[in-house]
Amino acid sequence: MTTLDFYLSRLFLLRFLLILVAGSFFILTLDMMEVSNDIAGIEADSELQATLQYALHRFPSFLSQLLPIATLLAALLTLAEMQRHRELVSLWNSGLSPIRIMRALLPVGCLLAVLQFTLDDQVLPETTVQLREWSIGEFGETEQLAGADGKVWLRSGNDYLRIPEESLGAERLDNITLFRRDERGLLYERLDAQSAQKTTNGWLLREVTRLGEAQTTAEKLPVYLWDGQIDPEGLRLLARPPRELSMSQLAGLVSSKSYGQRSPQVYKTWMNARITQSLTPILLIFLAVAWGQDYRRTGTLTRLMIGGVAIGFTFFVINGTSIALSEVGTMPSWMGAWAPFTAMACLIGFLVVRREASEPIQIRTEHSSSGNAA
Length: 374
Hints:
By secondary structure, the protein is α+β, with helices and mostly antiparallel strands. It has helices at residues 3-34, 36-39, 47-84, 87-93, 98-134, 232-237, 247-255, 264-292, 301-327, 333-358, and strands at 151-156, 159-164, 172-181, 187-199, 202-212, 219-226.
C-alpha cells in the first residue's frame, strides 16, 4: 500500500466509523425509548442487564442498515474535505485518474463488503431469533401461516400435509392429516395420524386412520412410514422474513420449494440480493469518486454533497422497489437484485469515461532556441 492509498483509506475510515457508530447508537437510543415497556419483560437479574441484552441483540441490525449510508456519506465527506484543502485539486492536476483513486480505496471497500455480508448472513439470523422470542417491538409481529382454523398446509412433492400451527418446528407432529396424490395430481389416499416422528427415512406416523381411493371404510394402522421431506428446522423459518435468514437457510427453502407456503421466487430473490447488498459499499465508494471528479477545479462542495447523496438514495429506493417487484414475480429473481446494481455500475462508468473524454488532449512540444555565434 502506497502513502496515498494509506492516506485516503485513513481519511475515509475515520469518517465512516464516526457516522456508522454514532448513527447506530442514536437510532438504538430512540428504539429503546420506544420499546422500554417491552424490555422490562425480559427475564434478567436487573433492569440494566435486560436493557444491555436487548441493545446487544438489536445493535447489529442498525449497523447493517446504516452501513451503506455511512459508506456513501463518508466517501463524499472525504472528497469534500480534500477539495476544501485543495488536496483533491492537486491530485487531479498531477494526472491522477479517478480509477487510480478507486483502486486506492478498493481494499477498504472489500473490507466493508465482508463486514456487510457477515452482519446480514451470520449475525442477524442469530440475533433476530432471540428478539422474536422476546417479542419486542416489530419482532413481536410474526407472520401467521395458519388459517382461521389454526391449521397450516404444507407440501412435500405431490403430497399435502395439514398440521396444527403449534406443531411448526417440532420434532414430533400431532393430529396431522396427510393427503397423498399421484403424478397426475389426483388424490388416492388420506391418512389421519395421532402423531408423527421424524426418522432417517421420512416420518413415522402412529395410530393412523387410512382411507384409500377404492375403500368404503377406513382402515386402522398402528404405524405408517411416509417418505415425505418436511424439515422441522425449515418449518421454523417459514414465519421469518427472508432478510433474517442466512444464505444456507434461503437455499434450503428454495430446494424444498418453501413447503408450498410461499413462492420460491421470494427466497431466490433474497439470495441474489444478499450478494448485491454485500457489494454495495464498493459501488458507493466508486460512485463518490466518479461524481467528485466533476468538481476537480471548483469549490462547490454543496453541489458535490447534495448531488452524490441524491444519486445514492435514489439507488436505495430503486433497489428496494426492484426487490419487492421481484418477490411478487413481476421480474426474474436475478433481475430484481442485479438490475439496479448493474445500472449504477454503468452510471459510474459513464461518469468516469465522460470526464476523461471531455478533457482536451494536450500535446507538449519542445521549443529549441538557436543563436548565431558571434
